[in-house]
Amino acid sequence: MPLLPRSSSENEPYRAALRHAIRSSKALLEFVGVKSPLLRPEVLQQPDFPVLVPRGFASRMKYGDPGDPLLRQVLAMPAELVDAPGFIKDPLAETQTGTDVNPAPALIKKYHGRALLITTSGCAINCRYCFRRHFPYAEHRDQKHTQALAAISADSSISEIILSGGDPLLLDDQALATLIEKFEAIPHLKRLRIHSRIPVVLPERITPQLLSLLKKTTLKTALVIHANHPNELDNQTARVLNDLKQASALLLNQSVLLRGINDSASVLISLAEKLYDQSVQPYYLHMPDRVAGTSHFHVNDEEAKIIYGKMQAHLPGYLLPRLVREIPGENSKHLLDIQLKDE
Ligand code: SF4
Asked: What is the 3-state secondary structure (H, E, C) of the chain?
């Protein structure tokens, strides 16, 4: 039986929210009433990686505050033009098709038992620190994922499929349902994991149709959201996260440790507690990847360990995310070497 009846999503409110999203630094600064000359939005009027911010997310920024931690995540800044040594376009070596890591276009297989499918090139928001901001999506285009689905079917070691992007929840409900039905038909696939920032940045996208689809799938489902700061979470995110939980999805969060945004134990403790209030388990705190144009967000290992030690002293173990770094070629994420005490 199909997961969804056929219908059009063209008139869904989230489409209108995306159409009316803010698309320049200048417009964003006007929206939040910030006039600081230090931000100099004219320097990056048309960045290669465009500015994109839903108004709902921008309305959670503090009016008139040039240092607002949500604003700093999405505002194109002159610092992106700095050519810092060691910061490169593909720090995770994800882009070579035909290799063991990329057995088919849009398919990435780094770790045992899991494969990641790039479903879309777009996101609902463009985060300036994004590790895929230079990803060559055009080279990984395979509209129906024919080759990727064939490669997954042929590899019985894969029990978990991870939908990534871009943001996979930008696919409309019908496209998502069709893809999930194809996964369900592959006997060795047991689990579906969806990585999405949409419940936080465009909660309107969590439609009754999407909830119904998640409820009906026979695959065990986990949704990994992405919030970096407690101010990203409000009543609307609480509502949709509760809906997602009721739809039987395991809810996890991953954050990136970012200078000037959340490089403080008190902010990250508050984030962990607020996530838990909204039914989400803190999962990973990622060291930022060394992506070209993002060196101003970088936090070094020593600073990270001090912040993490304070989190550990304050939070119960189940609210403490794992502090990790991704290293190309390693068969799992690398835990930063911190001596954790028992509770
Ligand atoms: S939502 Fe995720 S993939 Fe999209 S720009 Fe932000 S960090 Fe990158």
From this structure: CCCCCCCCCCCCHHHHHHHCCECCHHHHHHHCCCCCHHHCHHHHCCCCCCCCECHHHHCCCCCCCCCCCCHHHHCCCHHHHCCCCCCECCCCCCCCCCCCCCCECCEECCCCCEEEEECCCCCCCCCCCCCCCCCCHHHHCCCCCHHHHHHHHHCCCCCEEEEECCCHHHCCHHHHHHHHHHHHCCCCCCEEEEECCHHHHCHHHCCHHHHHHHHHCCCEEEEEEECCCHHHCCHHHHHHHHHHHHCCCEEEEEEECCCCCCCCHHHHHHHHHHHHHCCCEEEEEECCCCECCCHHHCCCHHHHHHHHHHHHHHCCHHHCCEEEECCCCCCCCEECCCCCCCC
